[in-house]
Amino acid sequence: MKTLATVAFLVAAALPSAAGELALELQGGYFDMAAKHSAKALFDSSGGATYGGALRYTVWRGAFVSAGLRTFSKDGERVFLLSPGGAIQKLGFPVSVELRPILLMAGYRLRHGQLVVPYAAIGAAITSYTETSNVAGESFDSDASKTGFVGAAGVEVGRGHFRFGAELGYSTVSGVVGIGGVSQVYGEDDIGGFHVIGKVAVAFDIGGKSKPAAKPEPKPKPRPRPKPQRPKS
Predict the structure, then answer these.
(1) pTM summary value
(2) C-beta pairs of 148-151 under 8 Å, 24+ apart in sequence
(3) Considering only Cβ atoms within 10 Å of each terminal Cβ, which end of the chain, N or C, has fewer?
(4) pLDDT digits (tens, 9 = 90+) for 114-160
């Protein structure tokens, strides 16, 4: 709830009083972790499903700001590893990792208002990292939060209220130690990664609308002049 409240506050603070377009995006796709070797050792793969949503506000022509939240999680087991090239020994103790990045971005939409709209954006990725494991009946939890960078490019199709789109992007959030401890062996500390998502957007025009111009009052028709009458003889 605190995370959602933070996103809502940041979007509200970014909205100017002038009219613009506000869009709500539902997102889902694939995320591939930058710490590939560590992830593969623990989870047998470095990627998986990600989903979330975002609010986007077009402030001027094609310029926009957005705030979004996504989530990504993987389940695996603890391993023993002496060196990066050594044999990986599974220990049978479960471990789970969850990433929740808040993405605050600014960008530009080319051909804004057209049927097909390409766009690009950059910004900050405030990522929360949670690791949970159980070793011999004892639970271990660790949490960390770090801010990094994110860049994305995509395309949106549609006019009116409903739009569809696709996006490619990459985030880097370094300085985080975890992922079952094997990250220190591999020298990996980045919890960012590559994402490809599809999205559905619902857009609305907000702000003051200009009133229609008042119709000019019709000019009074000139009265016909009386014809001069000849005097009677």
Answers:
(1) 0.77
(2) 148/124, 148/172, 148/173, 148/174, 148/190, 148/192, 149/122, 149/123, 149/124, 149/125, 150/101, 150/103, 150/105, 150/122, 150/123, 150/124, 150/125, 150/192, 151/120, 151/121, 151/122, 151/123
(3) C
(4) 899 999 999 999 999 998 887 777 777 888 899 999 999 999 999 88
